[in-house]
Structures are given as structure tokens and as C-alpha cells.
Amino acid sequence: MIAEDVTGSATTTGQPQEEARQREANLRDALGVFTRVRESLVDGSVYCNMGHCYFLRDEYDRALECYETASRRFYNGTNVSTLIHLTRTLYAKANRDQSFATMRQALSYAQRASHLAPTDKSIVYNIAMIEQKAAEMMFALPADKRTLLDLESAVQHAEHAQK
Predict the structure, then answer these.
(1) Where are the domains of the chain?
(2) Which ranges does the UniProt record give for the TPR repeats (predicted)?
(3) CB atoms < 10 A from the CB of 142, how many?
(4) Distance separating alpha carbons of residues 17 and 30, to the nearest angstrom
(5) What whole-number distance in Å separates Cα of residue 118 and Cα of residue 113?
(6) How many CB atoms lie within 10 A of CB 13?
(7) Closest to 47 in 3D by CA, of 26, 25, 73, 28
(8) Which ranges in the chain belong to alpha helices (H)?
(9) Domain 1-76 maps to which CATH number in 2.60.40, 3.40.50, 1.10.8, 1.25.40?
(10) Cα radius of gyration (the chain)
């Protein structure tokens, strides 16, 4: 069982207010439970589930802390699922903040996951989507907010995404 099983779908668009309030209450309760579990069970899955709760609350920085703790402390950076969670969170944060640098971090984690699971086509697809979105994001920035190096990198990633 993971946090997303208890809290429901991450989709909140069009939810009635009562459902949204209930979902938020479920997320709070789940975080409380995982916090207590973390005190007695030192395991990466606890941190991942806490990360899921924070992600669903759009608290991306806290979600990243949890996923990074799980990845570094418990999985030595080699757990593909945790790397994908880091990728997903960084991608969402980059879109929210319109941050090319954060999108590049998402790409880095996705590439690490791909290196560990080279036959996983969903990771390859995710990499292409991140590269495409990063290029779109870079070209949408005003000229004074981007560098030639960033533009060249975005073009290179966009070309790679097309393959």
C-alpha cells in the first residue's frame, strides 16, 4: 500500500469542494501516520510514501527532500522507482516555476533511471517529453533571461527528443 492508494487520485480538476477537503484531510492524516512510522521503522519506503503525500499537496520541495533521503540513504541512488519519483517531482516543479534549470535536473534523474533500466520504454518516453518541454520552456523565456549555452543545450535536447 502506498500513500496514493489512501489519498485518492492526484487529479483535482473539477472536484467538488467537499471531495477536495476530504482529500486534503486524508493527506494530512497519511503524513501523520508516516511520520509516526518513520520514528519506529527506518526504511526508504516510508520516506517515499511521505514524498507521495507532499507531492499530492504540491509541496514539491518537501517531496524532493523525502525522495532524495530515500534514494541516498537507503537505495544508494540505484532504485529506479525512487529516481522516477524524483524526476516526476522535479518536472512538476519546473513547470510550476517555469525553471529550465529544474527541468534539467529532472532530465538528469530520468537519464540515471534509464541507465539502470535501459529496456524500460516508459523512461525513454519520459526523457523525450522532458527534453521537448525543456526546449519549449527555453524558447518561451525572454531573450535577456537565457544564455547561448542554454539555447544550444535546449536545441540539442529537442533534436534528441525527436529521435
Answers:
(1) 1-76, 78-163
(2) 44-77
(3) 6
(4) 20
(5) 8
(6) 4
(7) 73
(8) 3-7, 17-40, 44-56, 60-69, 80-97, 100-116, 121-140, 148-162
(9) 1.25.40
(10) 17
Q: Taking the model in full, what pTM does it have?
A: 0.80
Cell numbers representing residue 125 in the block: 518516453
Q: Tell me which DSSP letter residue 117 carries.
A: S
Q: Which three cell numbers stand for residue 133?
A: 518541454
Q: Residue 84 in contact with residue 77, Cβ under 8 Å?
A: no
Conformational region of residue 140, where left means phi above 0, alpha means psi within -120 to 50, and beta covers everything else: alpha
How far apart CA 106 and CA 122 sit, in angstroms, is 15
Position 130, amino acid: I
Over range 109-126, report the average pLDDT: 97
Q: Give the contacts of 23 (CB within 8 A, at least 6 positions apart).
A: 7, 8, 12, 15, 56
Cell 519506503, residue located: 45
Q: What is the mean predicted confidence (pLDDT) over 46-73?
A: 95
CA dist 158 and 104 (Å) reads: 12
| Amino acid symbol at 103 | M
**Cα 20 to Cα 4: distance, rounded to the nearest angstrom:** 14
**Could you tell me the three cell numbers for 156?**
540539442
